[in-house]
Amino acid sequence: MTAGRFTAPYGTPDRTLWRMARCEVCGNDYGMSFEVHAQGAVHVFDCFACAIHRMAPICEHCRVQIIGQGVEADGQWFCGAHCARAEKGQVGIVDKV
Length: 97
What we know:
two-stranded antiparallel ribbon, Prokaryotic metallothionein
């Protein structure tokens, strides 16, 4: 089931119904849930916290969820340049400021 607003039967424009959608992380049924479309899949969440929990990549070095920009090195994701340098041993990886 998808989230969204639709007009009540018989074209009553002043009355609307909300379709409920279950969050795939916490299972909450919430009328204002939302969908995230990513890499050909559709995910349903009731809040940003659940979306972050499911969708955010995890740093290959310190295992924290990457909510900001992050750093990609050789196909791996890191929370910042420090973790990328520590894990990959590469020089020249810097955070953007």
